[in-house]
Write a structure and sequence with these properties.
The complex is a heterodimer of chains A (about 240) and B (about 425). Chain A is α/β, with parallel strands linked by helices. Chain A has helices at about 20-30, 60-75, 75-85, 95-100, 195-200, 200-210, 220-240, and strands spanning about 5-10, 35-40, 55, 85-90, 100-105, 110, 120-135, 145-160, 165-170, 180, 180-185, 185-190. A 6-stranded mixed beta sheet of chain A has the order 2-1-3-4-12-11, sandwiched between helices. In chain A, helix 1 (about 20-30) packs across helix 6. Chain B is α/β, with parallel strands linked by helices. In chain B, the strands form 3 sheets. Chain B has a 9-stranded mixed beta sheet, with helices on both faces. In chain B, a hairpin with a 2-residue loop joins strand 12 (about 315) and strand 13. Classes of the chains: A alpha/beta (about 240), B alpha/beta (about 425).
Chain lengths: ~240, ~425
Amino acid sequence: MSPVEIVLVYQSLLGIYGDRGNAMVLRQRLAWRGIDATLTVVEPGDPVPSTGSVYLLGGGEDAAQISAVKGLKADGHLFDALDRGAVLFAVCAGFQIAGNTFTVGEQDDVIEGLGLLDVDTRRGPVRAVGEILTRWKRPDGSEYLITGFENHGGFTTLGAKAKPLASVEIGVGNANDGIEGAVQGTVVGTYPHGPVLARNPALADHLLERALGRDLEPLPLPELDELRRQRIAAVRKTGTRR
Amino acid sequence: MPSSLSTPAAPASLSRTQRLRLWTAVRLGDAAALASRLAGRGSGASIRGQVLTRLDPDAFAELLQGHRVLAVSGTNGKTTTTSLVAAAVRAGLGAQAARLVTNSDGANLHYGIASALSQQPRADIAVLETDERVVSDMIAHARPEILVLLNFSRDQLDRHHEIKALGRSWRRALDAAGASGPTIVANACDPLVVWSAGTAARVIWVETDTVWHADGALCPACGSLLVRVPSAGRDRWDCPGCELTQPASDYRVDGGTVVLPDGTTVTPDLQVPGSFNVSNAACALAAAVEFGIPVEAALTGMHTVTAPAGRFATAQFGATSARLLLAKNPAGWAEALPLAASDPVVLAIDSVAADGRDVSWLWDVDYEQLAGRTVICTGPRAQDLAVRLSYAGVDHRVEPDLRTAITGAGPTVDVIATYTPFQALLKMVGLR
C-alpha cells in the first residue's frame, strides 16, 4: 500500500501562525499508529501533487492570499484531488481563500477565492484576536470542545451549501454570530490556530478518518489531555462568553 | 561622509514653561523610581519613565533635544547591537565618555527612552535602542543622524497583525524627513528591511548571515514571489515583478569576519556568541564608523560587551550554573537553539502580552534538532511546549516552576526563555 500523503500547500505564503504544525500532527498521528505516511511541502511555483489524501492551507497576509489563489488556480491539481475525495483543511486566511470571495487591502478590494466553500468574507467591524472555544458536533453525535487562538480581521458568512463546523462558546468565530468554520463535502474551514490540530486531536483524527475512509484506533496521550484541560480552563476564566 | 565625534549636539531650545514642566516631571519620576527600588520592585526605570511621560507628554521629544542620536531597531538583536554601538562610541569618546547616554536596559518604548535620557542631563550623544513601533516618532522628533535597521520578522502577531504595516510607517516617516532624515544602516539580505528603508535619503547596506527567510517570500512592494539568485558567496534575492532587488553591499559578513567598504577584512573579537552576533556587530561597526569612530576603536569597544541586559549571561541558581539566552519569536529561536548545547536544556515559555499571547509559533521552531537530548519544559506554557516536543520526538519533562526547573538540571545548563520568564530569571539572580 502506498503511504498516506499529507500535503502542506504553500507553507511560505500560508504558514504564518505555525500552521505547518497541523501537517506534522496529521503525519505523526498516522505514524504512531503504524500507518505509513509522508509529508509533502509544496512551495509556490512548485506543482501541487494530485495524489494527496489531506491538503492543508494556513494563515497569511493579504498579498500572500492573492498569490496563493493565483497559484492554486493555475496549477489545478488541488481541485482534481478534491474531486476524487481528498480532504482539504483550511485555516484562517486559508479558510477565507477557500471560499467564494474575500477582501484585501485598505480599500477592501474583493478577490475571487477558490470557490471550494460556499462562504464569503468581508472586513469585520473589529479584529478578532484571542483564545476561542467552540463546540463541534462529531459524526457520532457527541460533542467535542475545540480550543484555539483566533486572529482575523475578516468576518465570514455561510451560503446555503456550507454548514457550520462548530458553535462558539467563547470568542468571535466566523462573524460574531455564534458560528465557527464551515464544512462542505470533504472541505473543512476554520479560524482557530494553535495549531488547531495540535490542540484538538479528535479533529485531526476525524480528518484522517474522512481521508482514509475508515476508523482509527484511539491514541491516548495524557500530556495532550492536560494541555486541553489547561487551555479550556484558561479561556473559560478570561474569555467573554457568548 | 562620516561625521566627526567631536562635534557637539545643537543645544535644546525649550521655553521656560517647557523646562519647568520637564524638570518637575523628571524629579517626580525619580521619586517614583526610588520608591519602587525601596519596595524591592527592581530598578524603577520603567515606573520613572511612565510617571515622567504621564506628567509631561512631550518629555520624549523634549528630552531628545540637545542630542546627536544614533538609533537601533529591528525585530531581533536590538539590545545587543545597541550595546555594541554604545561600547564603540564609548571607546571613541575616551576621556569624554560621559557625553554618551544609552538605554542599556533594553527599555525601548517612549517612556523607557525618556527615562534613560533624564538620568544623564549632561550627555549630548544618545545611542538608543528603539522599538519598531517607536521608530516613526524617533525619526520625526529626534532627527537621528543614524538609524540601524537589523531585520524584520513575525513577532507578537496578536499585536502586530501585519508584519508589513510597521515597515509602511517607517517609509512614511523617512519620506517626510526627506534630505534631513537619518543615514540608514540596514540589512541588505532582508527584503522587508530594504523596502522599509526605500524612502531614505541615504543607506549603507550590510550583507549579513541572516538565517530566517520565512517572512521574505513575497515582494513587499508588488506582491510577486521573490526569487533567490545564486551568486558568489550567498544567494541574493530579487523581485521578478518590479525593480526591488538586493542592494549591493557596503559592508559584508564573511564567516566570522567583516569586509569593510575599502575591501579590508576585520575580525570582531566578540564575547557574545553566535554568528548572528557577527551580523549584529557588522551593523554596529558600520554605524559607529559613520558616526565618526575609527574602526580600531570601535572594535576595541565592541570587545568589552559581554551580557547586554542579561542576554548570554551566566548566573548561579543554587548549585547550577546557567547560561541565559533570550528568544522571542521563530527567527530568534532559529538563532538561539543552535547555541544551547547542554543536556538537559531548559526552555521557558510564557504568553503574556510581552511574549505574544498566541504560542502557535512553537510549531515554527525547529525543536527537532534537540532530538537525543532531554528538554526541561518550564514557564506557564510549558505544557504547549511538551506537546510540541512529543510530536518532534524529543525527550522532555515538565517542571512549571522556573527556579526548580533550572536547579534540577545539573551543574551547568543552557536556558532559552521568552521575554517574561527571561526577565523573571534576571531578577532572581539580581541582574535586573
